[in-house]
Amino acid sequence: MASEGSSGAAGRHRDIGRLRQAIIYLRGLAGRSPGIPTGAAALEAKARELMSDEAFAYVAGGAGSEATMAANRAAFDRHRLTPRVLRNAESRDLSVTLFGRTLPAPILVAPIGVLEMAHPDGDLAVARAASLLGVPMIFSSQASFPMERCAAAMHGSPHWFQLYWSKSDALVESLVHRAESCGCDAIVLTLDTTMLGWRPRDLDLGSLPFLEGRGIAQYTSDPVFRASLNEPLPDAAHTPRTAVTLSSILALIGGAGRYPGNTLSVLLSGESRRAIQRFIATYSRPSLEWSDLPRLRQMTKLPIVLKGILHEDDARRAIDAGMDGLIVSNHGGRQIDNSIAALDALPPIVRAVDGTCPILFDSGIRTGADVAVALSLGATAVCVGRPYVYGLAIAGASGVHDVLTNILAELDLTLGLLGCASIAELRSRS
Known about the structure:
Helix 1 (16-29) crosses helix 18 and helix 11 crosses helix 13 (271-282). Helices cover 46% and strands 9% of the residues. Strand 7 (304-309), helix 15 (312-320) and strand 8 form a beta-alpha-beta unit. The protein starts with 15 loop residues before the first helix and ends with a helix. The protein has helices at residues 16-29, 40-50, 53-60, 67-78, 122-133, 147-154, 169-181, 200-205, 217-220, 223-227, 246-258, 263-269, 271-282, 293-299, 312-320, 342-353, 368-376, 386-417, 423-427; strands at residues 96-98, 101-103, 107-109, 137-139, 159-163, 187-190, 304-309, 325-328, 359-361, 381-384.
C-alpha cells in the first residue's frame, strides 16, 4: 500500500515546530496576529462566535451531563510527561507506519459527520487541508459530500472510510466497495453508535440535521440506497407526523436542495423526502453482534479497524475475530454519559493486545501535547476531531490546515523537549 511520497514521509514535517513559531512571530512583526487561535480554549470560543446554535451544539455537545467529555479531559490532566535532558533531539522524526504505509506524522483526521454545519465546503475543505499536510482523512458515513469527491480532493493522499453498519447489508457492502474503488486504505467500523446517545444540547434545540437531509450524502449517492427509495418503509404507520409549518416547509425545500439533481424536480417527486425517511429507517443497527464481523471480512480485503473499543476483553476478541486494528474511543463523550475516559482505557488495551495490531486513539485530543500523552501510553497514532471542525468554521480549508499544523508543531516541540528524537522513542517509554 505504499503511496507516492511515502519514502519522503519521514522528513515531511521535520522541524515543523520551530518553523511554525518563526512564521507566526515574523507575521507578528508585521502587525498580523494568527487568524486561527493557537490555544484550544480560544479556538473553540472563536468558532462558537461564528457557528449557529444548532451547529455548535452538534459539534461541541456530548451525552447527558457531559460527564464523559469532562472525564476525557480530566484523564489528560492526570497524566504527566517526564522530560529527559541532554539527549540530542535536534533532529526529530514524526513518522509512523500504519498498514504498510509510512505517514509523516501520527495524526489522522477523525470522521465527523455533517461538516456542512460548520462550513459550506464541509468534507471537501477538510480533504484539501489534510492532503496538503499528508495527514490521512477518515471519511465519515455521515458526510456532506460523497466519498468519491473527497477522494478526488485529496489527490492521492491517504484516506480511510468510516462505516456505520446499517440495517441493510446490501447497502453496507455497496459502501465498502465504493471505499475500495476510491482508494481508501482501511475500513473503520464504528461500534458505539448503534443508536444515538441522549444529547441535551441537540434535544433542547429540537435539532437533528439528518431530518433536513444534511449529512446523508454517502447514502443519496449510493445506487443501492437509491434503489430502495420506493420500497415500503418498516413501521411507517407508527412514524410520528411532522406538523406543516413554515419551518418544516423550509426544511423540506432545503432537503431537496441537498439531494442530487434538479431541486424543483426532486421536491415535486418527493424523492428527497423519501430519502430522509429511508435513511432514518436504515441508519443504525442495534442488533449488531460479534458474529456479524466475518461477513464484513468477506466483503473486503482492506484492513478493518474497530472504533469504540474501551475494554481489554473486547480488544482481545477483536483480534481473535481477525480484525486488523483498534481505535480506543468513547466517541468524544457523545454517546454515553459517565463512561470511562478513553485515555484511562488505553493502557489496559495496549497491554492486552501486546503489539499484535496497531492501536489508535481518540476522544479528548486538543493539543500536540495531548497527542504526545496518548502516544506515550502506547497509542500508535491518534485521531483529531473537534479542533479541526472549529478551524473549519472559522476559515474553511485554511482554518483546518492551520489547526492541524499547530497540533503538529506543538507535538514536534514537545517531542524534542522530552528528549525524544522519534515517535518510536516516545512510545518506548510506555
